[in-house]
Amino acid sequence: MRRLISGWTDEHVPIALALTVAPVAGAVAASAPAPNSLVGVGAVIATALSALFLDAFGGLVMGVGASAVVILAMRLTGNWTPRSFPTSVTLVLSLVVLGWLVGMISGGIRERRERVGSPGPTAAPVFGSLGLLAADAAEDRLDEEVLRARRHHRPLTVVVVLLSITDRSLDAAARDAARRALARLIESELRDTDVPFALAPDQVGAILPETDVAEALEVVGPILDAATRARFAVREQDERRDLVDCAELHVGFAGMSEQLADATTLLEAAQASAWADRGQGQDSRHAAPETAT
User: Fold this and answer.
1) Does the predicted model carry a pTM greater than 0.70?
2) Is CATH 3.40.50.1820 the right assignment for the domain spanning 135-286?
């Protein structure tokens, strides 16, 4: 149920409404006396099929046209009477709404296909990863998740993982290999409902829907554990190195709240938390050792 709710978006609303309106319109049309029942059912089918090739406005016009045909048929057969008025009005309104909804759905599908097919930052691989969203696309997706979390009163957490290379002997290619290893690790260890993204070559993270900060710690735990076993190739030396021997991982969390109520502030807070974790680690390494007394 959690995955179903978290996967529900505003795009599913017109689909659900269309699946409700279509059978209602069909049932109302079938209840009319012959031959108006045949005309009504045919109008429902024609409206739904025609609107598949139109947008929301075109579907609305198609629904109005089909309603006019139904009204004309009822008047010609003498069935446009006060007794049949509630049923007739229901059928007419159902046709208009059905055409509008189906047109909206089909138009939205075509727009998404055009966005996916067009080149842009969201279609290109990010830092050698096939699944991480770019920073701008991640912010857009996070805006959607924030709206959904508010609407359903559910928690939302953003996590950012900062990769800090500690082995100065690694060349540029080896550093990129280490970053790709971390990106693949995060992609593989996250849940199906989580959304991985990359803010910079050394900053990757994830949007965790339906998750508070305490639960986010449980999600990130297996990632950090797997990082202790992750390896990457150093081509110059023709060997494989352990990620933890060459780099440190610093994790930052930001949970949605009254203060962190939009994508920008959530991302900035998660980044600041990761940098703060890095600073604490450096302070502890540089601290003077305690002396026994």
Assistant:
1) no
2) no
